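Q: Given only this backbone (221 positions), what sequence would you predict?
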């Protein structure tokens, strides 16, 4: 059985969404980010990314990670690519062209988009969005997202989905990266194709099921 290590309030949400889309039976092992704990190595600390048992699984000390048929894999977007290719169906590429586009847009999400969307969400998560430094960080991130958003807008003017004529793992991966920036409503309003596409991604039953579990999650911190 597939085992997903990580809480829903982390990048593991991407893998939980993917498992919902594929209808995969899976086991969830909550793992907290050590940075949120005062002493992650204390004997009574909850299972976290610095726990010895987790480090034995993933020495990079990051979530998510999965175990699947003897394979241990980390990096949330790579995990989703693996699951799509293993299980097939409409979320996977139907041919080499679609596979290439899925890889392209996933790498684009990781390299060109996520570094800035993470800056935005972390500013809000730490309650600094109203400070001078926080506002400056958000402005800089939005500015640097300008070009990626333009490219996404042009792509979605040509096709309703990123890599094929249907929703694929490329759309799921990109949607989860962009979710971190949804607080910036003006940026989405000025890119209506991106805004509409993200709404369609997030209207999927699998996304809603994942988010319901995320919202119900109680973190032991």
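A: Predicted residues:
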């Amino acid at each position: 059985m597939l085992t997903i290590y990580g809480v829903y309030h982390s990048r593991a949400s991407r893998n939980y969404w993917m498992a919902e889309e594929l209808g995969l039976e899976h086991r969830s092992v909550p793992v907290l980010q050590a940075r949120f704990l005062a002493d992650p190595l204390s004997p009574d600390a909850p299972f976290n990314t610095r726990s010895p048992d987790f480090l034995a699984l993933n020495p990079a000390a990051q979530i998510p990670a999965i175990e699947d048929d003897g394979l241990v894999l980390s990096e949330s977007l790579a995990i989703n690519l693996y699951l799509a290719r293993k299980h097939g169906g409409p979320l996977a590429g139907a041919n080499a062209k679609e596979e290439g586009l899925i890889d392209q847009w996933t790498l684009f999400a990781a390299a060109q988009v996520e570094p800035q969307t993470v800056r935005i969400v972390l500013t809000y998560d730490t309650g600094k969005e109203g400070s001078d430094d926080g506002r400056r960080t958000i402005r800089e991130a939005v500015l640097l997202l300008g070009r990626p958003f333009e490219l996404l807008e042009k792509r979605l003017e040509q096709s309703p989905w990123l890599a094929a004529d249907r929703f694929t793992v490329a759309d799921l991966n990109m949607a989860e990266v962009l979710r971190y920036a949804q607080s910036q409503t003006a940026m989405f309003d000025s890119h209506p194709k991106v805004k509409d596409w993200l709404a369609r991604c997030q209207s999927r039953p699998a996304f809603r099921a994942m988010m319901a579990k995320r919202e119900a999650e109680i973190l032991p911190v």
